[in-house]
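To whoever is covering the structure queue this week,

Two jobs came back overnight. Logging them here so there's a record in the thread.

Job A:
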Amino acid sequence: MMMKDVFRPTKSAPSSPAKPLGISRTRSESFHAIHKVPVGDSPYVRAKNVQLVEKDPERAIPLFWSAINAGDRVDSALKDMAIVMKQQDRAEEAIEAIKSLRVRCSDQAQESLDNILLDLYKRCGRLDDQIALLKHKLFLIQKGLAFNGKRTKTARSQGKKFQVSVEQEATRLLGNLGWALMQRDNFVEAEDAYRRALSIAPDNNKMCNLGICLMRQGRIDEAKETLRRVKPAVVDGPRGVDSHLKAYERAQQMLSDLGSEMMRRGGDDRVEQRKLFDAMFGSSSIWQPQPCREQSVKAKPKPSNDGYGDENVKTNVNVVNNPLRVDAKPFFSSKLISNSEKLKRTRSLKVFQDITLSSLSPRA
């Protein structure tokens, strides 16, 4: 990390001039409200107009660059440009843009930029970067430095704001970490991540992934016991019926298939059990984690491509154009580095006390 990133003075996000009170909305302003485009003729407004009204993302990208260079709503311009780049299959460019330009953004924007970078890392298959950042975010939660020392933060999804608690963020990050570690075939650490997530809050999909981790290690009896603990769907559950129903049905199917094959072949050799599981279940059995979502959205669910429920999200939420994403090397402001002892610490949770510094220490 460059020194200028670490010791950059704190600054607030630039914004367009506020409209005087008491002035009625014009037809032009109504148009901007409908298309969710800001009012005015600044570089950022022109870029948003090309992106959302003219629907020309390729032409919008250089306009976002112009807005950043002009210092016009830099926070929003950089985030929007990175998202558009990702949509245009230019994820690697988006990563480099965020890394080189985030120093111009406010401290308030850094967490959102990290979230976008996490998603970009996942898109590009940069699992090591993704894992390192997830561990660092968990380390900050353990130290009480996440959310600027507050218990909750305000997130936005599909134009709506909602509150996310430290506990919810921890379970989401642990689920993401477990999934990424499974892609690296690191089932021992993935098991630990899922167990810590489940110690904070129950989750059927995480329970199924934990069962897969145990199976991959040849611990069939433990895997069976874990999968038996997956509960049936609850109508008013936090993720909706569909997600938990798929998790429950998948767990029962895995138990049935595994039991039948073990009975047919016999034997308790763990090496043979792992080979058996590898042949029976592929990576498609693993639920992919998704960004945190508002729990009150009631949109009709879209069918999942792999037939399994997502790990960290209600499946009855449209996942297209999600602005709340996850992943990237963390940003440190001078406030965090030089005055870390003065930051307000969150009230420690017992579960976070169990998270060792060695397992969650940030990347060197």
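Job B:
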Amino acid sequence: MFIDLTKLQGLDALELLIAVDELNIQTLIPCIQKYLNEHKDEFLYQNPIEIFEMVYQCELFTDLYNYYFEKICEEPDIIFNSENFVTIKEPLLELLLKRDDLNLDETIIWDSLIKWGLTQNPSIQQDFKKWDEEEINMMKKTLHRCIPLVRFHHMSQEDLHDKVFPLKTLLLKDVYNSLLTPNLKTNIIILPPRQSKSIYDSIIIDRKHFTTSRDGNTSKAFHEKCDNIESTIVIAKITNTEQIVGDKNDYQSVKLGYPDENEYLSSIYCNENYGPTFGGGHDLFCQNDGTWASYRAYSYPRMFPPLVTFDVEDYEVFQVIK
């Protein structure tokens, strides 16, 4: 029997492993598991909702499910920005919202819940100001398990007034009163703020805007996602070294993570045929095939030897939130 695993998408590979396990074809199991493990991030990015739900439902994928759960908590946009987010099953959504390390703003969670709830009830009007009592009760019933998991007390007053209070009919009276009067004594349980486990967790850097492992390692993918986006930082990890290079896109320097020296690069050159380009010449740039090169040390002659090419494990672009 010959099976070309490279022709399979994520769901196909998962279904094949289930079938092979049920038929007890032991020789194929490790091959399929290895293939899934090597492409697990790629498959999740391609089809996040269905992949996540399948590994959740089958005990065979316990390790993969645990990995995906951690991955999604670190990068919740994988699920919450998916075009199929509204199809996620309530148990999975509830499990995500219970996590203290879900790296997502509570306002985005609230907006996403309302969007999800409306999709489960297509008869409800989109304009909540026109909801009648029946529609309000339908939404309350749909969201009754998820709303208590939103950490309203860690939202800004502005977001509460703009996003939450107009929908106060969905909240328990005690919860609404405690938000309206923060110093009011109450018996409600106030959940702690979420704390991301991500190494990128920062008051300066928000969520990833672009990463090659998710969006593609080509200059076209980079420019489609990053052109005309203000205040971004590029961070790249050079393969088989401890070197990390990075830059800020508004001509301000950003410190490099070198073990033995501190240097600065500035992204001051733009070409649609290249990815990120640092320095005034070709000090350091990403070529269209994903390899990186330094051809002419103009701004930073001590950084790299001339005419050198190398690979990076991944590079990521973050948007700076001011």
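Note for Job B: Residues 91-180 form one domain.

Please reply-all if you pick these up so we don't duplicate work.
Q.
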